[in-house]
Design a protein that fits this description.
By secondary structure, the protein is of the alpha/beta class. It has two domains: 11-218, TIM Barrel; 236-358, Lyase, Ornithine Decarboxylase, Chain A, domain 1 (Beta Barrel). The protein is 28% helix and 23% strand. α7 (136-147) packs parallel to α8. It is elongated. It starts with 5 loop residues before the first strand and ends with a strand. The structure holds pyridoxal-5'-phosphate. Residues 33, 35, 80, 160, 194-195, 210-213, 220 line the site of pyridoxal-5'-phosphate. Pyridoxal-5'-phosphate (PLP) binds next to loops.
Length: 359
């Protein structure tokens, strides 16, 4: 007996999706990006599942790397934002973690540190995101300084695309031109491709791909039916159950502030799922859901612990299964109804939701 709100993670689907990503550039390496608890899928479980096949892992910060090392993961781990305080360098050094270096503070901290063994640096070039990294001229100075340090074992050129998910954007090629020109003066292995570039920009493949969202079975491209999506298997299914049913009349309002008013006799189901579980409160009237596999819609506002769905004409009794996204309903179809993207749906699942692992 328990509240039915459940997130089911299909680890075999994630392994399949990693193979899809890897097959785009089989001679190169692919880091599985498992930051933010593997986009809400569970970083330790995902890392164990992928450890035999993945070339390495990428996370956002040392806490996420420590969690993996403590769980026995021994493959390379890249800190995509590097370290935040100099005391992290000791751990980075002892546990063979590759660190991004994106600013002068990090550069100087390495220069000042006494390290037990040399470290591997992913030196970040700002090619247009204007978020982290050195501009092209600063980059060359930073590269020369690191190159001269005996405590730096290798340097990898790291940059990030702003618009690789938009096949029509000219910005991707501009970014490629910038890093190629920098790399002529600063020869090193290179890493640029996120999921979108892994799938659609072979000119950006180079030495290390960094697929994230596609590992979880969600295409980074718009439209829920693209050829990339067709190769992927959704890994996360969010589900719950109908806990109350009401037969309402035309004119009856549903939920907070009565944002839905029935225009005809309507059978309304209340479902144990709310924004405190991670289902977005922004979901508009009409957002698709599946009840016992039948497609219907959310009506009325999502509240903290519940939401309401239209059961009119459906085969659905108390306890009926409700799927919010997953195997049978793509997160990419639901996300626009909530003014968001699949990434925030996946990372937003809260602690209250039961977790089940498959595979
Ligand atoms: C999150 C992240 C990725 C993965 O991006 P996806 O769009 O999920 O594939 C790659 N590189 C960096 C630097 C990131 O922060």
């Amino acid at each position: 007996m328990a509240r039915a709100a459940t997130v089911t993670i299909d680890l075999d689907a994630i392994a399949h999706n990693y193979r899809v990503a890897k097959s785009r550039a089989p001679q190169q390496k692919a880091l599985a990006v498992i930051k933010a608890n593997a986009y809400g899928h569970g970083a330790v479980a995902v890392a164990h599942k992928l450890e035999a096949q993945a070339d390495g892992f990428a996370v956002a910060c040392i806490e996420e790397a420590i969690e993996l090392r403590e769980a026995g993961i021994s493959k390379p781990i890249v800190l995509l934002e590097g370290f935040f305080t100099a005391d992290e360098l000791d751990y980075i050094c002892r546990h063979n973690i590759y660190t991004a270096v994106h600013n002068e503070f990090q550069l100087q901290a390495i220069a000042d540190a006494s390290l037990a063994q040399p470290i591997n640096v992913w030196l970040k070039l700002d090619t247009g995101m204007h978020r982290l990294g050195f501009g092209p001229e600063e980059y060359k100075h930073a590269y020369q300084r690191l190159k001269a340090m005996a405590k730096v074992n290798s340097i990898t050129l790291l940059s990030h695309f702003t618009s690789a998910d938009d096949p029509d954007s000219p910005v991707t090629q501009q970014q490629i031109d910038i890093y190629n020109s920098v790399n002529r003066d600063c020869p090193s292995p290179m890493s640029f491709a996120n999921s979108a570039a892994t799938m659609r920009h072979s000119a950006a493949h180079h030495d290390w791909q960094r697929p994230g969202i596609i590992l979880y079975g969600s295409s980074p491209f718009k439209g829920d039916n693209d050829e990339v999506q067709a190769q992927l298997k959704p890994a996360m299914t969010l589900s719950s159950e109908v806990i109350a049913i009401h037969e309402l009349q035309a004119g009856d309002a549903v939920g907070y502030n009565g944002t839905w008013v029935c225009d005809k006799p309507t059978r309304v189901g209340t479902v144990a799922m709310g924004y405190a579980d991670g289902y977005p409160r922004q979901a508009k009237n009409g957002t698709p859901v599946l009840v016992n596999g039948q497609r219907t819609r959310i009506i009325g506002r999502v509240s903290m612990d519940m939401l309401t769905v239209d059961l009119t004409g459906l085969d659905a009794e108390l306890g009926a299964n409700v799927e919010f996204w997953g195997e049978n309903l793509l997160a990419n179809e639901v996300a626009p109804w909530c003014d968001t993207i699949s990434y925030t749906l996946f990372t937003g699942i809260s602690r209250r939701v039961h977790r089940k692992l498959k595979g």
